[in-house]
TrEMBL record:
GO terms for molecular function: catalytic activity. Residues 1-20 form the signal peptide. It comes from the Eukaryota. This is Alpha-L-rhamnosidase six-hairpin glycosidase domain-containing protein.
């Protein structure tokens, strides 16, 4: 408690820190722009080329739970592995990179096997999965050939793992049980010998074993050399921050930022989908093997869908991930490279690809097509890169016209592709696609102004009017939500679906602007279970992707309380749930809280660091602190903070080339009188102007360059009357220690519909077999 008081008081004096030089995303700052106690929540390691494990998770054979390989260990012994020995190591967070170890001694041509897992649920001799061909990837087989530093080859860069199991098999592998990293297979005849070694004791110190011909290796250090987030050698040099009275929310914000860093990779280390890569690189790698050496974009860094997989450019990331990147590390170069890849693979008719290489050979999705356009807006807004926009403007408008041409006499976008975020039923006159287009049309005028093209304005506006009428056909009065389409999945249709994605987009695109907004928000909230908000369009799924849109939707309806409640419920579960990484945001999971993402039959395939799941990193900044840029770099801005009933203080901000945007809100008390005061401080860069809205007070044309402070206080007993003004109240302030966080509603876990799940997958799933 005391610590929180201190922070709240600090808040009252700490804003308005000048930027020492212009922030340039082509050469990111090497130090954090907002130093402070909140940095203890940063998940990025201090030295990303040397990440050591922090815990021994499990051992087998003669390996003791020794601390030799752990960070900070002063244990001078070495760890010796012989046949049958295994050690599973745990890192402080989900990480990425190549494993290296220091060999002190070895004998008899030893090899070790490596198995990686993001989730604690798949730690063992078999790794988790990157492809969907087999349930688990093959363990990697590494032969020791020299003393000293041994590192895996450049292509064996695992993009996401928190657990690493290394072991020496007590039997020579047969067939394809292992995957060899260049070393020839063990010689014939060794199998028998190895079998006879099994079970023999192996001492930790040196090779004191009786069997002189047993293989063995002594290791004195093990580390991971991480190449994710190549844009900055210091992964902790954040350009934004968030802090609040909820330690859970703070962890969520930083887990999102770190997830985005793990999903940003060296473009030459892409695509874990080796079966797709084969179309280009003709690799002969066996089913279940993995490597990351496929070039997925030009440039030096690129933002992708996920750390472990697919390690490809996916437009689904453009709406959620990009603003999150902008306010945490400002790695806009990685965003630009991803957008360039999508435009480089634009098809002849102007359609944009469903994904970048090794895809981009004909695949198309109406929704992802529009996500790319929204990505252009986000990129230009935060980077101010108008020259880039000019180069792509013709491509952009052609692509926009493609979507507009699909709006038919019903006033809705009639999709031509079933592809979306792997959810089923993307057919017909779809609500999500129509609302996405509406949003793209709202955002295009700012872009058109920047390039000086005024030719399309009228057709865009009239298209918006058409969509506003069209979407009414999908309104289900009885349910108070929109239906997925006007066919079978329509209101009272044989398979009525009231989708999370479409209803969220209806709100966040502002296509409807009446009292149904709050109704939809409340109806979405009614559906939540113990582990989060269900994506009813995709049975059995909790999708932090669609859920991130739902967060924005509640805010758009003015229901900020629901947004923060859902973050703590769903993203809190993704941190503290038993099968997650407690450091990154997962691609999806099951309504009953199981780690399986029902898009895949193998639960091990889930990606635990997926950029599209990082909604809170954006939403806390844009909607709770309420800082929105309304023109590139924030030359103009709008600030509308919302503390919500869940918080007693919140502060944070970020920077662009123009300078720092920062907001702090806190509930305090005047110690002498007990008067309750809510104080807000806002600081924006000079030479900018904006609009501030707070509790019904609106200030237009506020000039940046100095700090603005507001407060209001309540002096009646029941707390219903708030007064503003009277500067005298701003004396002897202490944190409002009478503030109590309201209790969270109890909810039942979702129930799995196994029949629907297995019908969708076309097979029984791994978890049910268990
Ligand atoms: C990490 O890998 C890079 C090359 O990718 C190399 O230059 C560097 O020395 C390595 N660092 C460590 C500590 O292994
Ligand atoms: C990271 O650790 C390696 C190995 O100890 C060291 O060579 C390198 O200088 C360290 N880098 C930083 C940034 O501390
Ligand atoms: C490895 O180092 C050990 C002692 O540290 C030494 O006895 C052994 O001969 C070395 N092996 C090779 C192949 O150099
Ligand atoms: C990538 O690695 C795989 C597996 O080792 C190999 O087959 C392929 O040729 C490599 N590709 C490149 C571009 O290095
Ligand atoms: C790199 O840029 C060139 C030229 O624009 C383009 O043809 C190529 O497809 C790009 N590579 C990738 C992997 O996107
Ligand atoms: C759906 O059915 C209910 C009654 O079951 C009816 O009141 C409602 O008007 C119907 N809605 C539509 C859109 O047909
Ligand atoms: C997750 O990590 C936080 C520290 O960031 C820790 O306080 C919490 O106990 C951890 N949760 C679990 C379930 O291990």
């Amino acid at each position: 408690m005391l610590k929180k008081h201190a922070v709240a008081i600090v808040l009252l004096v700490s804003l308005t820190q000048a930027l020492s030089g212009p922030l340039n995303f082509e050469s990111l700052p090497l130090d954090t722009l907002f130093p402070g106690p909140w940095e203890s929540n940063i998940k990025a390691p201090f030295n990303k080329s040397y990440i050591e494990p922090v815990k021994v998770f499990n051992t087998e054979g003669s390996v003791s739970k020794s601390s030799v390989l752990l960070a900070g260990s002063d244990d001078r012994r070495s760890l010796t592995l012989g046949p049958g020995d295994l050690v599973s190591l745990e890192f402080a967070e989900n990480i990425a990179g190549r494993v290296c170890f220091e060999v002190e001694d070895y004998k008899n041509e030893p090899f070790i096997a490596l198995a990686y897992s993001e989730s604690p649920a798949f730690v063992g001799r078999e790794p988790d999965a990157t492809t969907d061909r087999i349930e688990r990837d093959l363990p990697l087989h590494f032969s020791i050939k020299h003393n000293g530093t041994n590192c895996l080859g450049q292509q064996y860069n695992r993009g996401g793992f928190k657990y690493l199991t290394i072991y020496m098999p007590d039997d020579v592998p047969t067939g394809r049980a292992f995957w060899h990293t260049g070393m020839s297979a063990p010689k014939r005849g060794l199998r028998h010998t190895l079998n006879s070694w099994a079970g023999q004791a192996q001492k930790l110190l040196g090779f004191s074993s009786t069997a002189n011909n047993r293989p063995g290796v002594s290791i004195t250090a093990l580390w991971v050399n991480c190449t994710a987030f190549p844009s900055n050698p210091n992964g902790r040099a954040y350009t934004g921050y968030f802090d609040s009275s909820s330690s859970l929310l703070n962890r969520i914000w930083y887990a999102g930022a770190w997830t985005l860093q793990l999903s940003t990779i060296d473009p030459k280390e892409g695509s874990a989908l080796i079966d797709l890569n084969r179309r280009w690189d003709e690799n002969q790698s066996p089913t279940g093997s993995w490597y990351s050496n496929f070039t997925i974009s030009n440039g030096t860094a690129v933002t992708t869908d996920g750390g472990k997989r697919d390690r490809m450019v996916w437009p689904g990331d453009m709406s959620i991930a990009v603003p999150g990147i902008a306010v945490s590390t400002y790695d806009m170069l990685a965003v630009r490279n991803a957008l360039d890849t999508l435009f480089d693979h634009q098809y002849g008719d102007g359609s944009l690809p469903y994904a970048g290489p090794p895809m981009g050979t004909g695949e198309f999705s109406d929704t992802y097509h529009i996500h790319t356009l929204l990505g252009v807006y986000n990129y230009v807004l935060y980077s101010g890169d108008v020259e880039w926009l000019k180069r792509h403007w013709a491509d952009y408008t052609t692509a926009l016209e493609i979507s507009m041409a699909k709006v038919d006499e019903f006033g809705l976008l009639h999709v031509s592709s079933t592809a979306d975020w792997l959810r089923p039923g993307m057919t017909g006159h779809n609500v999500e696609a129509s609302a996405l287009l509406y949003d793209a049309l709202s955002k295009s005028p700012m872009l058109a102004d920047l390039v000086g093209d005024f030719s399309n304005r009228e057709s865009w506006t009239s298209m918006q009017r058409i969509l506003e009428h069209g979407i009414e056909r999908l309104w289900c009065e009885d349910s108070g939500l929109f239906a997925d389409n006007k066919g079978r999945r329509g209101c009272n249709g044989s398979e009525e679906v009231l989708p999370q994605d479409g209803n969220s987009w209806a709100l966040l695109s502002h296509i409807i602007n009446d009292d149904r907004n709050l109704k939809i928000s409340r109806n979405l909230r009614e559906r939540w279970g113990k582990y989060g908000a269900p994506a009813t369009e995709f049975p059995n799924v909790i999708s932090p992707f669609a859920g991130s849109f739902e967060l924005l939707a509640h805010c758009s309806a003015g229901n900020y309380d629901a947004a923060v409640e859902l973050m703590e419920l769903q993203w809190g579960y993704m941190l503290d749930g038993p099968a997650f990484t407690n450091s990154t945001c997962a691609e999806g999971y099951r309504v009953d809280g199981d780690v399986q993402y029902p898009a895949y039959w193998s639960a091990a395939r889930n990606s635990h660091a997926h950029g599209w799941s990082t909604g809170p990193t954006t939403v806390l900044m844009q909607e709770i602190l309420g800082i929105k840029l309304t023109s590139p770099l924030g030359k103009t801005w709008s600030i509308k903070p919302q503390l919500t009933k869940w918080l007693s203080y919140a502060q944070g901000g970020f920077a662009t080339r123009l300078g720092k945007f920062e907001v702090g809100i806190s509930l305090v008390r005047q110690s002498s009188t007990g008067l309750k005061i809510e104080v807000i401080r806002i600081s924006t860069p000079k030479d900018t102007t904006g609009r501030i809205e707070w509790k019904g007070h609106i200030m237009e044309n506020v000039h940046g360059g100095h700090e603005v402070q507001f407060w209001r206080y309540k002096d009646d007993l029941d707390g219903s009357v708030w007064n503003v003004g009277n500067e005298a109240v701003l004396k002897d302030l202490i944190a409002d220690d009478e503030w109590i966080k309201p209790p969270i509603e109890e909810r039942e876990p979702g129930v799995v519909n196994w029949e629907a799940l297995e019908r969708h997958l076309g097979r029984s799933t791994y978890r049910r077999q268990q």
